[in-house]
Amino acid sequence: MSMSMTPEKISLIHPLWLRLTHWLNALAMLIMVTSGWRIYNASPLFNFRFMNELTLGGWLGGALQWHFAGMWLFGLNGLCYLLINLFSGRFKRQYWPLSPRQFFIDLWAALRGKLQHTDLRHYNMVQRAAYLFVIVVSILIVLSGLVVWKSVQFPLLRTLLGGYEMARYIHFFAMSALMGFVVIHLVMVALVPRTLLAMLRGR
């Protein structure tokens, strides 16, 4: 057994597959959100529109093509992420157990800027809750997106989500919640820059 391998294994924070799925997910979300804004502008749910300069696709048809491309990347990449997490045992190691009491302790520490990030290989309770929230919201985005895209082909799913129009609202609010997480995530990265380095190089 080579002792020279031990420090390298210990220092690894994020494996290659995790970094790849993370950045592919970021790309997919960028494509889906910006093209989704253009699609929303064509049939808005509320009394506001997104600036066309911030949207992708140029027109409705182009935006739909970009959205479908992002959808496949988002869905397949997310499925790979979930399956690898489940079968490797990482899901249980990183996200379990959950403690409501520890969550509020960590949340209070985070709000005061005193939450420790000494070992990036282990998630604190706020991170566990946030990442599990993202997984649930992402699944909801995919399911509601299927109803909006192929409403006739998924009648049971359409019924479970309250109909086509309700699925549109669910899709919008789920994506908005995911964008809220992204904003908070970027703020945390700015406060703890070494988390970005770890996601880029694995250490």
Account of the protein in words:
By secondary structure, the protein is mainly alpha-helical. It is 73% helix and 0% strand. It contains 9 helices and no strands. Mean pLDDT is 88; it is low at 1-8.
Give a count of the beta strands, DSSP E runs of length 2 or more.
0
- Total helices: the number is 9
Rg, nearest Å: 19 Å
Main sheet summary: none
Q: Runs with pLDDT <50, length 5+?
A: 1-8
Share of β-strand residues: under 5%
Percent helix among the residues?
over 70%
Characterize the overall form. Answer: globular
Query: Structural class of the secondary elements?
Result: mainly alpha
- Terminal residue distance: 23 Å
Secondary-structure element order, as H and E?
A: HHHHHHHHH
Q: Could you report the average pLDDT, rounded to the nearest whole number?
A: 88
